[in-house]
Design brief:
The complex is a heterodimer of chains A (418) and B (263). In chain A, strand 4 and strand 5 form a beta hairpin. Chain A is an alpha/beta fold. In chain A, helix 9 packs parallel to helix 16. Helix content of chain A is 44%, strand content 13%. With 263 residues, chain B is mainly α. Classes of the chains: A alpha/beta (418), B mainly alpha (263). Chains A and B meet through helix 1, strand 1, helix 3, strand 2 and helix 4 of A and helix 3, helix 5, helix 10 and helix 11 of B.
Chain lengths: 418, 263
């Protein structure tokens, strides 16, 4: 009797397995990209599945409160923000969907840049042709090389910007006199070795671009410029990389835990900094330490500073997968992100996002919008680096080929070697 | 002797549960608690209340409960007949069946998870609640079946026969004899099923594909950001429910040890 019921169960399970899903009804043709009104009409009632890094509760609530509410009230779109611990999970998801031939898939929009964008573009998993068709794309400077290259990869028509970021350091004004701050990599080496164990940086590697960026800055300073790294040149890399490893290895014994361990993420470094294990942290936020203070991640006396040069700045973007189930809603959301009122809201630390403008304020013609955007910049206050200092130190990123050379080279020559 | 043992248990409880939980509590209630402050400057319920009031947290809590309860129900429904069959039926190769059943607990879950994900994608179950529940059964069932078959190996079926002899129908035997005698083991098995499903992250993240956001999925996403206040709050929430389940189960089991079959 038991055998029979077991057999029956097995049969049932097999039957359930062989039951292939019913073919989907053919979808109506999507609205042409030139017909924005029809896109908005199509998007009504859709749910947009936005996959994004979910590590910061303040960013999460900013997204829900600002975009979630506006999407619902103005466009009748429901925002489903899907938090992932790393954007690479969304990339993996898309690649498995591609392999299994799933269309429509599950992701409508991804917050993305760098290596993840490069892999999706290479896998031909991105929907194209749309970014400059968004009504608000007139506010974006699509001639700015820092914007149209994402970690050196041309964005073409596959990505639309959301915000911008620039490499900065953070110090605690209650502990460190601003006059003592190092203003170059050479001065940093001196500082670190005079204050044993009081400095560390994020381990460069996939998913930890802040660490890679710290190393790139050193490369720029050693070689005397950022400009020559815009295009890939193997000979040039071989000329300068030994000096880069020499610099980092000279720094290594002076680091926190004598360079035997490095924080893996920006937030680990913030934790070390907030608990006074090290003197400096690293951020990419236009608010400097402001957003981190608001979030409670660092003390209220934290302030941002930059070196005199070689502080890499860039943009981050949203992309729409080729198999997005709610493309119209994704387009509406990508356009909403560029709306001047939300651009102004996103930089204010109290709102919890704290990254810079994705649009170019000079392209905003509406007087009131422009005033709002400029006023927001003025409200960043003491925890932020003054805009003039940021601009003076701003350099674009190096060509993408250097990314993995630096990450692998660092691992071999600095982390393991020596 | 007895007192010493009780003392040891309390010490263990203190070191393994109460101290870490206390630390979590301080972190959850005291934002901006940095070295060298021995204790947070001020304690406030605000961050915890904000977390609990957040609709995302509530949705994740509800979904976690839904998944865990569904998996518990399914696991007991499948596990009990399976355990009976494995114990009493004249099966050939019982050892092989048990070995196959326990294989998933030995193989790294990521290896199983990736294979299951592509299977679930093909079946159209990836990203659905039911797909996640089915996949949860894989780590859950071995423990449920093991618990139930260890009870059944000491289970005296003569009680059932006795009842039959006395004129009870199949349903009456089940309701009046089998169920009461199996209840403690069923409760323990259900508790295991609930606890394993409740804390499952990897399978949920892989098969859920980001659309089934349970509390552990929420927690892992937040770990990437490392804000101690939020992390501690979500962690406490995750721990609270199993604590309640264990309390409930120990209530149901009457606290003391019971000899199966003697009631």
């Amino acid at each position: 009797m038991y055998q029979r019921s077991l057999l029956l169960l097995l049969c049932l399970m097999l039957a359930a397995c062989s039951n292939t899903p019913a073919p989907l009804a053919p979808l109506p043709a999507p609205a042409p990209l030139d017909d924005w009104e029809r896109i908005v009409a199509d998007a009504r009632g859709q749910t947009v599945n936005w996959y994004m890094w979910g590590g910061s509760e303040s960013i999460n609530s900013y997204v829900d409160q600002f975009y979630g509410t506006a999407l619902q009230e103005r466009y009748g779109i429901t925002l489903n923000r899907v938090p992932v611990s790393d954007a690479v999970l969304a990339v993996d998801q898309l690649l498995s969907e591609k392999e299994a031939g799933i269309d429509p898939g599950s992701i409508d929009l991804i917050w993305i840049n760098g290596e993840n964008f490069a892999s999706l573009k290479q896998a031909d998993m991105l929907y194209g042709g749309w970014n400059q068709k968004l009504p608000n794309s007139v506010l974006v400077d699509y001639t700015n090389p820092a914007l149209i290259y994402d970690f050196g990869v041309p964005i073409e028509t596959f990505e639309s910007p959301w915000s911008s970021a620039q490499f900065q350091f953070i110090y605690d004004s209650a502990r460190t006199d601003p006059a003592d701050l190092p203003r170059s990599y050479a001065a940093l080496l001196e500082y670190a070795c005079a204050n044993q164990g009081r400095f560390t940086y994020i381990a460069p590697g996939p998913g930890a671009f802040q660490g890679t960026r710290f190393v790139k800055g050193a490369l720029f300073e050693l070689s005397g410029g950022a400009e020559q790294w815009r295009n890939f040149d193997q000979a040039q890399w071989e000329q300068w990389s030994p000096q880069l490893w020499a610099y980092l290895n000279e720094l290594k014994p002076c680091l926190w835990r004598t360079g035997s361990a490095y924080p893996a993420t920006e937030y680990e470094l913030h934790g070390l900094f907030a608990n006074r294990e090290v003197d400096y942290s690293i951020t990419q936020s236009v608010t400097g330490a402001g957003a981190l203070i608001a979030e409670g991640a660092v003390p209220e006396t934290a302030r941002a500073f930059v070196f005199n040069d070689y502080m890499i700045g860039d943009y981050n973007y949203v992309a729409i997968p080729r198999n997005a189930p709610n493309r119209a809603a994704a387009l509406v959301l990508a356009n909403l992100l560029l709306e001047p009122e939300f651009q102004a809201a996103q930089i204010l630390p109290e709102n919890g996002f704290g990254l810079g403008y994705g649009i170019d304020v000079r392209k905003v013609t509406d007087e009131q919008d422009r005033a709002t955007l400029e006023a927001a910049m003025d409200r960043l206050g003491a925890p932020a680096t003054p805009p003039a200092e940021l601009l003076a130190a701003l350099v674009p990123d190096a060509a993408p080929e250097y990314q993995s050379l630096i990450e692998e080279g660092w691992r071999e020559n600095v982390l393991i070697g020596n | 002797m007895q007192r010493g043992a009780v003392g040891c248990i309390w010490l263990y409880a203190l070191a393994s549960v109460l101290l870490p939980l206390g630390l979590f509590g301080l972190h959850a209630l005291g934002p901006r608690w940095f070295f060298p402050a021995l204790l947070p400057d001020s304690l406030s319920l605000e961050p915890l209340l904000a977390l609990i009031g957040n609709p995302r947290t509530q949705a994740a809590l509800g979904l976690s409960a839904q998944v865990a309860l569904l998996v518990t129900g399914l696991a007991v429904l499948i596990g009990y007949p399976a355990a009976r069959a494995l114990t009493f039926a004249p099966l050939v190769g019982r050892g092989v069946i048990l070995a196959v059943l326990f294989l998933p607990t030995v193989i790294p879950p990521i290896a199983i998870g990736i294979g299951l994900n592509s299977l679930m994608l093909q079946l159209g179950l990836a990203g659905t609640l039911i797909g996640v529940c089915i996949v949860h059964l894989i780590p859950v069932l071995p423990y449920v079946i093991l618990t139930l078959s260890s009870m059944l190996s000491r289970y005296d079926r003569h009680y059932e026969e006795q009842a039959q002899v006395l004129g009870a129908g199949a349903w009456q035997v089940w309701w009046l004899v089998t169920l009461p005698m199996s209840l403690p083991a069923l409760a323990v098995a259900a508790l295991f099923a609930f606890l394993i499903s409740w804390s499952e992250y990897l399978f949920t993240a892989l098969i859920g594909g980001g659309r089934v956001i349970t509390l552990p999925v929420l927690l892992f996403a937040l770990v990437a950001g490392g804000n101690p206040t939020t992390l501690a709050g979500v962690a406490l929430l995750i721990v609270a429910v199993p604590m309640l389940a264990i309390l409930l189960a120990s209530r149901l089991l009457g606290g003391g040890p019971q000899v199966v079959g003697v009631r």
